[in-house]
Amino acid sequence: MNAVFSFARFSAVLIKEFIQMRRDRVTFAMMIGLPIVQLMLFGFAINADPRHLPTLIELGDNGPITRAVIAGMQNSDYFDFQGVVGGEASGNEALRRGSANFVVVIPQNFERDVVRGHRPEVLLDADASDPSAVGGAAGALGGIVQVAISETFSGPLAGIVPPPPPFSVIVHRQYNPEGKTSTNIVPGLLAIILSMTMVMITAVAIVKESERGTMEMLIATPVRPLEVMLGKILPYVMVGYVQTIVFLTAAYLVFEVPFQGSALAFFMGFNLFIVVNLALGFLISTAARSQMQAMQLSFFTILPSILLSGFMFPFAGMPGWAQFLGQGVPATHFLRITRKVMLKSAEIGDIMPEMGALVLTLLVISAVAMLRYRQTLD
Amino acid sequence: MTDVIAVTGLTKIYGDKRVVDDFDITVPRGAIYGFLGPNGSGKTTTIRMLCGLLTPNAGQGTCLGFDIRTEADRIKEQVGYMTQKFSLYEDLSIRENLDFIGRMYRVKNRGERVAAALDDLGLANRASQLAGTLSGGWKQRLALAACLLHDPKLLLLDEPTAGVDPKARRDFWDEIRRLAGQGVTVLVSTHYMDEAVQCDRIAYIAYGRKLIDGPSAEIPQQVGLETWRVEGPDLAALETRLKSMPGIVQVARFGSSLHVSGTDRQAFEKAVNALKAEGTHRWSQQIAGLEEAFIYLMAGSQDNFAAAPDEAASP
Question: What InterPro entries does the entry give (chain A) (predicted)?
């Protein structure tokens, strides 16, 4: 008799899959090495608040106030003074060539006009073709100059300094007081790495059977689809576990990213996210005819995961339609779970909206995948 | 019930192409049944429908007493299916492959059965070699051993000896006959005439239609060919002349002789007598063999398909 589910057949597929995984050394090394390499690469490389930007200066004047302004800018770490330019043309040329991000122009008679109270203008010429490169520095400049020059006005010049505003604004940077980019990037990166490997490996593992012709033999045996699916997928779930353990350990040791919240909440979200990704990989495998196609289709899912999920750019900053699309990307929700749990001490109750969204995504993906799945060769 | 396979009206349509068209077949228990036909004639599709890998668009019947439409799972348990292309895992060792198949069919005493299979194959000392590194002949033997691990009652072999050397083919057929002697029914597709001769019954398929079906010894008679064997000088020139003469339907070269065949007795004899009178070649009448019959069928079926694909292409 043919049981509805046979443990023997399920374990046959499972054992076979483990043997194949072990034999394919390159893929195996990639699955374990990838999280570490990406963590190191992105954790160290990505900086949303860039410092030490190359800066040139056009000096129309040279006095104690000018020197104070320059010293203040230099001390802020945002600006790295590389030299002096003779005039507007050579400053623009440097910006155009990309050899400098900023040109600071101190006008002629700057000192005199300051003392006379004419409010002269210091020009910061910035290469804003990359807004995020200049944004932080330009925003900080006003304050830097203010502080720098206030110390030089003493004695008779003290009257030039404007009075402080009647109230002060205090920014309280919660969850990431030092404003470290890695604290933001690292938890999100886990979502990206898992999406990448889980989707791609599942899709490729299933397509591989039909591409090599072994699918014909496989479905000629009495094996049931569920036995094949579980047997093929379970090894990769374990890979996901290993990746996550390796990743979290490295994140804690190298980047000192805290893990503040509930481990159980994380575990639940993590398992659900893996299942969603496996379903997505399975869906791709029903459309792809070769391993190459499976890779390409998987790649299409990776870019939205990086760009629309809120991983690289703030989710709230995207236009409404893009946010709508982003809601459909599973990584969006898992990324929120990891950030909430790791940084914001979230408990199970706090991640329910994301869990709900992931369940919904799972249902949609599974329904489409099941409709497309063929038990026969037709 | 002694018929292992009994199907009627089997039809498979891909797009607007009828790959298998209204196919009937009855295979008695213990028979070796040959499927012959040119490439793309629907042999593989038919075999796949018989073991439940493909769902037919029309037709019904039983395989091993189970309905081919609804009881594919039961059929699969008792069928050994050897695919045209090697379809075991190349990155698994010989033993791992057999173990895998053993688990899939839930074979009792799997360890002993696998060990016995390895011994029979003569691969016991190479059991941990990867299957992908085996030569074509060994792959074929391994695939057959894997098919037989669960003692199937029906063997479906899809061009099992393609690309295998003659010695290995002979051994393979000895094994097939031994199995048939034990009551295993074998359905085998092939291109080779020397293999066709080994079958008890033969079905010739072309473009999805069965053109002829019968005991292999009776096929030439059914086709109804008259054949003369010609030997002598400058056969190439003679061949060209023969081909243009009325009444002659086929001229096939066999080494240093020509086999000239016709179906219309009167016209054929007239043509042959005219040439015989020239006295340049030695003519001897002979009984048409399977090979002439199939070359004739193959040529005829192509013509029929090109001219009128909807008409029954019977000779």
Answer: ABC-2_transporter_component, ABC2_TM, ABC2_TM_bact-type
CATH for B3-220, options being 3.50.20.20, 3.30.70.1130, 3.40.50.300, 1.20.1250.20: 3.40.50.300
Find the CB nearest A219 among B53, B92, B105: B53
Give domain limits for chain B: 3-220, 226-287
- Suggest the residue from B66, B103, B133, B159 to mutate for an interface test with chain A (most A CBs closer than 10 A): B103
On whether the CB atoms of residues B105 and A227 are closer than 8 A, the answer is no
Residues B226-287, CATH architecture = 2-Layer Sandwich (3.30)
Nearest to A220 among B76, B92, B106 (CB): B76
Contact A242, A198 (CB under 8 A): no
Give me the percent of chain B exceeding a pLDDT of 90.
Answer: 42
**Six token digits for residue B223:** 């086709």
Q: Which of A15, A213, A222 sits opposite B77 (nearest CB)?
A: A222
Ranges of each domain in chain A: 7-46+179-372, 53-160
Q: Do A221 and B105 touch (CB under 8 A)?
A: yes
Q: Does B103 touch chain A (CB under 8 A)?
A: yes
ipTM over 0.90: no
* Residues of chain B found within 8 Å of residue A376, distances taken between Cβ atoms: 52-55
Q: Which residues of B touch A6 (CB under 8 A)?
A: 106
From chain A, the residues in CB contact with B52 under 8 A are 376
Question: What's residue B301's pLDDT?
Answer: 60
Which residue from A minimizes the CA distance to B50? Answer: A220
Residues in a beta bridge with A59 = A106
* Chain A residues within 8 A of B64 when measuring between CB atoms: none
What pLDDT digit, counting tens, does each position of A229-275 carry?
888 888 888 889 999 998 999 899 999 888 989 999 999 999 999 99
- Residues A88 and A134: their CA atoms lie apart, in Å, by 20
Q: For residue B148, is pLDDT > 90?
A: yes
Whether A338 contacts A266, CB under 8 Å: yes
User: Helix H segments across chain A?
Assistant: 7-23, 25-45, 64-75, 88-97, 110-115, 131-150, 181-211, 214-220, 225-255, 263-287, 291-307, 320-327, 330-344, 352-372
Give residue-wise pLDDT tens across range A84-117.
988 888 989 999 998 999 999 999 998 888 888 8
Global pTM value: 0.78
CB contact set of B216 (below 8 Å; sequence gap of 6+) = B34, B196, B197, B199, B200, B201, B202, B290
Asked if pLDDT for residue A76 goes beyond 60, the answer is yes
Q: What angle do CA B229, B230, B234 make, to 5 degrees?
A: 150
Q: How far is CA A295 from the centre of its chain?
A: 22
Q: What is the pLDDT of residue A339?
A: 93
State the DSSP code for A213: T
Which residues are within 8 A (CB) of A202 and not within 5 positions of it... i.e. 6 or more apart? A232, A233, A236, A277, A278, A280, A281, A282, A284, A285
Q: Tell whether domain A53-160 is in CATH 3.40.1710.10.
A: yes
Question: Is the pLDDT reported for residue A277 higher than 50?
Answer: yes
pLDDT digits (tens, 9 = 90+) for A193-221: 999 888 988 888 888 888 888 988 998 99
